[in-house]
């Protein structure tokens, strides 16, 4: 059974930074394309960033240039470095496999203005 556990969320002022982590158990991590999603109150869950096993990345336009996704396959851990945070980045952030078969429980990011 694969488990994904996010951490690193919290309250930050606009313009600040946070780094989210997603720790994976199981052997699937290193060969899987991994993603970060977020869901703001009253809105649908949306894709934030994607990272392939070789390290290539893709970002939603809304976070491009501010967020950086990375992974450490040796540690079975993925990261999301979030800089220049805006109040509209406030959401629950989830990590998931690309096929959306496995999800973490989420970590809350709140950005105050």
Pick out its properties.
6-stranded mixed sheet; 113 residues; 10 strands; mainly beta; 4-stranded antiparallel sheet
Question: Your description of this structure?
Answer:
- Helices cover 0% and strands 49% of the residues.
- A hairpin with a 6-residue loop joins strand 4 and strand 5.
- 30% of the residues are buried.
- The protein has 113 residues and is mainly β.
- The strands form two sheets. It has a six-stranded mixed sheet with strand order 2-10-9-4-5-6, with no helix packed on it. It has a four-stranded antiparallel sheet with strand order 1-3-8-7, with no helix packed on it.
- It has no helices and ten strands.
How many β-strands, per DSSP? Answer: 10
- First CA to last CA: what distance? 40 Å
Task: Decide which structural class fits the backbone.
Answer: mainly beta
Helix content: under 10%
For this entry, what is the oligomeric state of its chains? single chain
Which strand order does the major sheet show? 2-10-9-4-5-6
Strand content: over 45%
Shape: globular
Q: Return Rg in Å.
A: 13 Å
Contiguous low-pLDDT stretches (5 residues minimum) are none
The number of helical elements comes to 0
Largest sheet report: 6 strands, mixed
